[in-house]
């Protein structure tokens, strides 16, 4: 009996610790491979590393050089423009399409597949295809001109001011279908009785959406924004394939800047500094958002 | 792939009388087009005859950018490839980090000092010992022209930059594109380099863009350079940004444009299109650079290996690279000229002959300069800074004075 | 709410949906038609025109004989490399995500929410940052340039998202069920096996599809961490398309891109329905 109790308590102890044991490998990997490497990069940003890491510490010089570099300003402002537009437009298109698709549409399956498939394609392929389509001499502009509208112009791809917007177009094309799927799933799980109650209270379709359904979809907005931000920050391949960062460096993004300086120009120090600045920028925006949403969902 | 190499190795081993272990070279490069594969094939087969198998490690993209990233991660993880396509000052940087293996014994045995010009062999050495083998010599300061377009426009092939502006205007007025150009950073930089050499001359080029002398960079010559470079903006077509260099060449080939400023690899495009030099196209030195030769030398650097077999394989590869057979076959295919002096000329065409003559004469006169647009003259950080300024300048309407200021600031920041 | 006004509204909705469908399909259409044209027609012709004399030349070349280096064997060998990498990586990261999600949803402990947030935030590192230190780490474990090493890297950086999906899904399972099962004497794994696993098909589908897409389309890890003869198809595609000299055969490039994208496209077309079903079942609800 005594032994049984002992065995039981050992097992109980094990079971109490089991969740933590399960999370342990992931936690270890996270500490080393995410935060450890971030710390490594941070340390690197204070050295004068050129081609490979060299641990000669030189203070904030790399950050000074970074902020004095005109190309970095362009990259950061591009990230803001691209990030905001990409997320906002994807959310809007995804939501609208989801609402429409939720209206018992014939052929919903086929249309939904058509909206979703761009997600399957890699950024390299997307960039290459859109590079063609947006090329003034080969793509849309030429096609419309061939149709007779000889003054039609659509040369954003080769315009310094507008090139970043072409990246928005391609990225939205790729990801808005996924957002649509998320919203569609969210809409489908909204209780019908809620909508009926709103309609009984005299709300029009528009009002019932705005006041009843959208608030319920808030967690979906959260997940969508997390995923879209993640894609926006990682948008390295797309820029490389679509514009190469050009014309000049007008459509450069921080991830491309970091890669170029760290690996192609043997300036690991500045590359590391740019990565840290990027991370802190993201941190400053996302942490408050994550915090508020997660606390909210705990209470809710 | 691995099985085939091992099989080839055994096959080769059975042919050779000497006892040969399965030695192999793992070669990192970015030659991935069909034409380049053919060029490399001759090296592969001659190595296989010596019992050395070839492990291909190709990473395309950005003219070597992706390959360099992979190389660095391999170096950091302690197993660099046997050989990698590295060129210019990067060779010295890798040498400084202690990664490169000396192939000096092969060099001495085959008298490399005797068959390579000093400017080239200096780049291949680290602390006086050879660590890399040059494959070819590209001349970058070429002007390619379509004589038919010139004839129709009543223009003549320009020999100075001032004349260029005049002739280009005539071509444009006749309804053609004056300068075919691909708006990618390295291409903008290639044209910029031609302007620097043509306007400033070899001495200025060396002082400002190789030695990075601030007085030279701040001089009025630099103002002039930017002014001329800025004037070129009007002569390219609006669809230039993002265009690949060979698409620009095809504009010259099919008579849409009059000229292109590009290195000698453009010759391959004309050849593939079945055009003959002299009648269908003309190659001359870029305006103002007829007594200058901007060189770009591809080379393989060798990484230290602990395995004795790999070391002997490296030496075999180094020897083959500077052998007359490979030098001839490779360069015939690629449009460049052999790095090795004194090769038989019969099989090369007239543009190559011009190139070879210029190579020898400028080596003596001091007009032989390394290309900063192609990573031969200055370290990557500085080259990148110059590229940023040049491409930004060309794609905007920055003034010449601002351009000069940006250049000086960028170079100082990168040093 | 007469019939006619509803019809107009519905026509507007259909019109909108169809216009978007056309926009979404356009790039795919361009890629397919280009891959079926011969090179002359591409140079002269219009981007959107149908091929005048469709040919499979480009496809055959992309699969079997295009040059990806000094080897000219097309994409075929790399296709199977990718499969060898993707299958274990997807399975392992999904399983770990499932267990993690289960813990974070129903077995919370002090600090587990913080852990989750930290995990989510860690997703935002640009992968370029970790290239070198990870290479050093893999080398210390003797895994440099092996398939195992590459799979490990994919698992490590995929677990954050798989955990997110499973946690969100499992959170909606009533906690009373778990408590009742515990009272019945069931332990941690038994509850998982008998209560959670049976309802998890939708979320497994979502996660597997997502991971498959991410890992199959990855280039950066593939090019840096793969070894001789084990490079994934994205590396080969890059080599094929990004040649530095030589005439570009746009039709071969497009065919190659389509071949590389085929598995993920097939997955989305065939399993798209399950994908949405899985999302509906709560993959991304709060």
Key descriptive features of the protein:
heterotrimer, B: alpha/beta, D-Maltodextrin-Binding Protein, domain 2, 5-stranded mixed beta sheet, 4-stranded mixed beta sheet, 52% helix, 13% strand, C: 286 residues, mainly alpha, MetI-like fold, 2 domains, globular
Provide the fold topology.
The complex is a heterotrimer of chains A (300), B (415) and C (286).
Chain A (H helix, E strand, L loop, with lengths): L1 H43 L16 H8 L1 H32 L6 H9 L6 H12 L5 H7 L16 H26 L3 H9 L4 H12 L1 H16 L3 H6 L11 H11 L3 H32 L1
Chain B lengths: L1 H14 L7 E7 L4 H16 L2 E7 L6 H12 L6 E3 L3 H8 L7 H6 L2 H4 L2 H7 E2 L2 E2 L1 E3 L3 E2 L2 E4 L1 H7 L7 H13 L3 E3 L5 H26 L3 H4 L2 H12 L13 H9 L3 E6 L3 H7 L9 E4 L7 E4 L2 E4 L5 H14 L2 H11 L15 H16 L2 E3 L9 H15 L5 H15 L1
Parallel strand pairs in B: 1-2, 1-3, 9-10, 12-14
Antiparallel strand pairs in B: 3-13, 4-5, 6-13, 7-12, 8-10, 8-11
Chain C lengths: L2 H34 L2 H6 L12 H8 L11 H31 L5 H11 L8 H10 L6 H25 L3 H9 L4 H9 L4 H16 L3 H6 L7 H9 L8 H34 L3
* Regions with little confidence, pLDDT below 50 for 5+ residues of chain B: 5-9, 11-20
SSE string of chain A, helices as H and strands as E: HHHHHHHHHHHHH
CATH architecture grouping of the largest domain in chain B = 3-Layer(aba) Sandwich
Q: Radius of gyration of chain B, Cα only, in angstroms?
A: 22 Å
Based on secondary structure, the structural category of chain A is: mainly alpha
Strand content of chain A: under 5%
User: What CATH first level of the largest domain in chain B would be assigned?
Assistant: Alpha Beta
- Number of helices in the DSSP assignment of chain B: 19
């Amino acid at each position: 009996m005594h032994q049984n109790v002992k065995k039981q308590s050992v097992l109980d102890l094990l079971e109490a610790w089991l969740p933590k044991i399960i999370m342990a490998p992931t936690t270890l990997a996270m500490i080393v491979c995410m935060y450890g490497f971030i710390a490594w990069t941070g340390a690197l940003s204070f050295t004068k590393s050129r081609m490979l890491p060299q641990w000669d510490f030189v203070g904030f010089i790399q950050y000074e050089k970074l902020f004095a570099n005109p190309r970095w300003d362009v990259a950061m402002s591009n990230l803001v423009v691209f990030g905001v537009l990409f997320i906002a437009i994807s959310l809007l298109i995804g939501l609208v399409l989801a609402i429409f698709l939720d209206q018992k549409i014939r052929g919903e399956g086929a249309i939904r597949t058509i909206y979703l498939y761009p997600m399957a394609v890699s950024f390299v392929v997307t960039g290459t295809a859109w590079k063609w389509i947006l090329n003034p001499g080969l793509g849309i502009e030429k096609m419309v001109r061939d149709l007779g509208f000889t003054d039609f112009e659509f040369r954003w791809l080769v315009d310094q001011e507008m090139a970043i917007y072409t990246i928005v177009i391609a990225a939205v094309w790729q990801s808005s279908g996924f957002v649509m799927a998320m919203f569609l799933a969210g809409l489908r799980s909204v209780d019908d009785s809620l909508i009926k109650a709103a309609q009984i209270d005299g709300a029009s379709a528009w009002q019932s959406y705005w006041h009843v359904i959208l608030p319920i979809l808030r967690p979906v907005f959260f997940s969508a924004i997390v995923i879209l931000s993640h894609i926006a920050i990682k948008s390295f391949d797309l820029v490389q394939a679509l514009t190469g960062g050009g014309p000049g460096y007008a459509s450069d993004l921080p991830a491309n800047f970091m890669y170029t300086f760290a690996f192609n120009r043997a300036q690991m120090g500045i590359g590391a500094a740019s990565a840290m600045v990027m991370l802190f920028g993201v941190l400053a925006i996302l942490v408050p958002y994550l915090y508020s949403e997660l606390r909210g969902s705990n209470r809710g | 792939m691995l099985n085939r190499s091992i099989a080839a190795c055994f096959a080769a081993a059975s042919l050779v009388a000497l006892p040969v272990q399965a030695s192999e070279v793992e070669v990192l490069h970015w030659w991935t087009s069909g034409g380049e594969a053919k060029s490399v094939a001759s090296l592969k087969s001659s190595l296989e005859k010596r019992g050395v198998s070839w492990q291909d490690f190709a990473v395309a993209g950005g003219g070597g950018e992706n390959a360099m990233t992979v190389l660095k991660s391999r170096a950091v993880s302690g197993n660099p490839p046997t050989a990698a396509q590295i060129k210019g000052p990067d060779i010295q940087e890798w040498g400084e980090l202690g990664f490169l293996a000396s192939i000096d014994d092969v060099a001495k045995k085959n008298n490399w000092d005797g068959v390579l010009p000093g400017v080239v062999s200096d780049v291949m050495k680290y602390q006086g010992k050879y660590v890399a083998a040059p494959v070819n010599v590209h001349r970058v300061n070429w002007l390619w022209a379509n004589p038919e377009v010139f004839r129709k426009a009543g223009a003549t092939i320009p020999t100075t930059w001032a004349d260029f502006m005049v002739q280009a205007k005539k071509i444009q007025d006749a309804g053609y594109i004056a300068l075919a150009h691909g708006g990618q950073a390295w291409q903008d930089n290639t044209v910029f380099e031609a302007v620097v050499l043509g306007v400033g001359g070899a001495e200025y080029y060396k002082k400002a863009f190789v030695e990075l002398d601030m007085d030279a960079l701040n001089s009025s010559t630099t103002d002039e350079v930017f002014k001329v470079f800025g004037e070129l903006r009007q002569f390219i077509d609006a669809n230039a940004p993002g265009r690949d260099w060979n698409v620009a060449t095809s504009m010259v080939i099919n008579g849409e444009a009059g000229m292109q400023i590009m290195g000698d690899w453009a010759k391959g495009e004309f050849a593939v299109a079945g055009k003959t030099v002299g009648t269908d196209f003309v190659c001359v030195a870029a305006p103002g650079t007829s007594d200058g030769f901007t060189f770009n030398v591809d080379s393989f650097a060798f990484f230290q290996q602990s395995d004795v077999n790999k070391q002997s394989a490296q030496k075999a590869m180094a020897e083959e690279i500077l052998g007359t057979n490979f030098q001839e076959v490779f360069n015939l295919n690629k449009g460049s000229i052999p790095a090795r002096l004194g090769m038989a000329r019969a099989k090369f065409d007239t543009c190559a002959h011009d190139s070879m003559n210029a190579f020898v004469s400028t080596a003596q006169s001091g007009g032989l300069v390394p290309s900063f647009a192609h990573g031969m003259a200055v370290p990557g950080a500085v080259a990148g800074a110059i590229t940023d300024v040049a491409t930004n300048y060309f794609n905007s309407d920055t003034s010449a004075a601002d351009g000069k200021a940006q250049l000086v600031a960028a170079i100082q920041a990168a040093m | 709410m007469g019939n006619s006004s509803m019809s107009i509204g519905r026509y507007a909705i259909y019109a909108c949906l169809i216009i978007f469908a056309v926009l979404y399909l356009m790039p795919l259409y361009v890629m397919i038609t280009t891959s079926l044209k011969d090179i002359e027609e591409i140079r002269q012709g219009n981007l959107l025109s149908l091929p005048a004399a469709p040919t499979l030349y480009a496809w055959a070349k992309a699969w079997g004989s295009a040059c990806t280096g000094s080897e000219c064997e097309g994409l075929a060998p790399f296709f199977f490399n990718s499969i060898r990498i993707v299958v274990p990586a997807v399975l392992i990261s999904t399983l770990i995500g499932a267990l993690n999600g289960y813990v974070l949803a129903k077995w919370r402990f002090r600090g587990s929410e913080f852990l989750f947030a930290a995990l989510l935030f860690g997703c935002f590192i640009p992968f370029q940052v970790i290239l070198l230190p990870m290479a050093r780490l893999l080398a210390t474990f003797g895994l440099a340039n092996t398939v195992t090493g590459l799979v490990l890297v994919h698992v490590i950086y995929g677990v954050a998202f798989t955990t997110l999906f499973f946690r969100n899904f499992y959170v909606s399972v009533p906690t009373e069920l778990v408590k009742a099962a515990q009272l019945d004497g069931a332990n941690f794994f038994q509850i998982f096996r008998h209560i959670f696993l049976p309802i998890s098909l939708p979320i497994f589908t979502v996660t597997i599809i997502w991971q498959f897409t991410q890992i199959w389309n990855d280039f950066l890890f593939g090019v840096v961490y793969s070894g001789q003869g084990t490079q994934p198809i994205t590396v080969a595609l890059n080599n094929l398309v990004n040649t530095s000299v030589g005439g570009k055969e746009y039709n071969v490039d497009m065919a190659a891109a389509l071949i590389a994208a085929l598995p993920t496209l097939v997955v989305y077309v065939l399993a798209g329905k399950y994908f949405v079903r899985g999302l509906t079942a709560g993959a991304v609800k709060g």
